[in-house]
Amino acid sequence: MSSQPTETAARPHRLFETGSALAPFRHPAFRAIWIANLASNLGGAIQSVGAAWLMTEITDSHELIALVQASATVPIMLFGVFAGAIADNYDRRIVMLAAQIGMLVTSAVLAGLSYADLITPYLLLALTLTVGTGTALNSPAWQASVRQQVGLADLPQAISLNTISFNLARSVGPALGGLLISLWDVSLAFALNAVSYIAMIVVLIRWRTEVRAVETRPMMPAIAAGIRFCASSDPIRRVLLRGLVLGFGVAGYQALVPAVVQERLHGDELDFGIMLGLFGIGSILAALVIGRLRRRIGVEAVLGLGTIGFVVAQSLLAWAETVTQALPATFIAGLAWVTALTSINVAMQVRSPDHILGRCLSIYQAVTFGGMALGSWCWGALADRTDLAFALHTAAGFLAATLVLLRMFAPMPKPGEGRVES
Question: I need a labelling partner for 276 at 20 to 30 A (CA). Which of 265, 312, 353, 401 fits?
Fold first, then answer.
């Protein structure tokens, strides 16, 4: 009898033990940043719906519609390696703070111009590219700071929880964004995104992290050092190649969904939001189990499952003629997104030394999201020259063929291969 209360009292504590899915939440800095990031992700999801839907209303070009989806990833490809060097050369908290303030200002400008009905397709692209540049600056510093928040032991779980935060927002934000646009207009979506940055700015101002020893180096030599390390590491080269090819292939789904909803499915902005919301729900479910799944069957098998999921999702989306028929595709794509990309992210993080971590992560992001940006343009251009269904089927075929080839010639690193210990 006396042992039962002790076990009951200990049970909540065990939820946060090292190795458990919720272990990172025992770190106050991680908790605060995670909650603030959830608010920012929610605003970003709402703005993404607004920008994508606005572009479908002001142009008939599939290529421009795909490019507005790619605008969040093109700056990562172009400026990511510089952002990684900045993250390693300066206080990562200050870098994140500057990026968040810049994105707030840009989103506010976007809200004002859209409210005044002054937006053109190329102006919309320019402003979304500016927000994407802020994301490119913020992302290496933010991802590299996770290790400062939780340590190496809880790092895989922290990455999964950050993925859950992103996809919680994606499950709620798109449907909410579609509803707000239908009740008001897209300017409200942009304004809410501007407000959403405030929570993260406040948390970063108050965060007092342990001072990290920084060896400031000139920008180009610092970038060169990161590139040399990644180029000299065979495990990291394979991880980067897998990220590049996967990003190019999955972009067919990400870039063409808005056009599919409006043209093939004859849906409205609320239907678009619901589809993106179901994508987010699938992502959350995958994030809850992905760690255990990787430990049980290995990273190569998990990455294969995620890739096959996108093959199925793109094929189903190409076949669908109603929103109801397309819903399974969006759910499967959400499952596949986290299954594949989280596995590649963890593989990169645990093989990158801390003193060049920002540069290694920026190179990974430049390669993977650069593949997405290039894929978005290619699949959008192909859809313009053929049709949406053909472009989606081609993207699915590309993923299926490259999965077979890369498992043979560029397998994912085995457990412990190239892994850093501090």
Answer: 401
